[in-house]
Amino acid sequence: MASLSNKVAIITGASSGIGRAAAKLFAHEGAKVVVGARRDNELNTLVAEIVAESWQATALAGDVAEESYAKALVALAVSEFGGLDIAFNNAGILGSNDAVTELSIEDWENTLRINLTGSFLGAKYQIPAMKGGGSLIFTSSFVVSTIGMPNKVAYAKLMVEEGYTNKQVQEISGAGESAMTPEQQRIQELEKQLWRANRDNEILKKAAAFFIRDNHTLN
Question: In whole angstroms, what is the distance from residue 10 CA to residue 36 CA?
């Protein structure tokens, strides 16, 4: 039996890279997936590929930093597939390559808007829809918090997001629902392996699937 059978998942940033790979993996493991990103054509191609394999998927294009879009993604999951069990908030950008002394306020705010506000808005509407408990996942990176990236000051929002995720776990647990996050040591080791191997899509998509499986078996 597929490990994600009868689960409903939202995946953002699904038009390419980690999000696209994760959407296909989740669907292959039995989940009904709702994929989101800004590029409509790429999303439609992804859905067609998933459906061609007799799996289930639907798409909605939009901007994760728009509250109406975050709300609409959840509404689509509920109307199309009957609920929400998994949310993989993967959408994000690296932002400008300018040094901090040259970085425009527009570039700064746009990076935070997509990466941080987008994550906040996703969780705001996803959590209430996970009525019986669920898995809330955010794409982050050990690089900005332990190594650093030149000319990527706005990308350091991921350190804020790690704290935000921990806060969400507390709030969900307090409401009688559940969220699963890995121990810090385990996820950092996984990310270090990812960095060394340069196989981000393959490793991260499987990592995401691992942390939402009931039996926690990673193939």
Answer: 8
If we measure between CA atoms, which residue out of 160, 159, 137, 157 comes closest to residue 207? 137
Decide: residue 34, CB within 10 A, 0-12 exposed, 13-18 middle, 19+ buried.
buried
Interval 55-107: pLDDT, tens: 999 999 999 999 999 999 999 999 999 999 999 999 987 777 777 788 889 98
Query: Across the strands, what pairs with 35?
Result: 11, 59
pLDDT tens per residue, range 137-195: 887 654 455 544 454 444 444 545 555 555 555 555 543 333 444 444 444 454 454 44
What are the residue numbers of the active site? 155
User: How far is CA 217 from each of CA 69, 90, 171, rounded to the nearest angstrom?
Assistant: 33, 22, 27
Burial of 143 (0-12, 13-18, 19+ CB in 10 A): middle
pTM score: 0.74
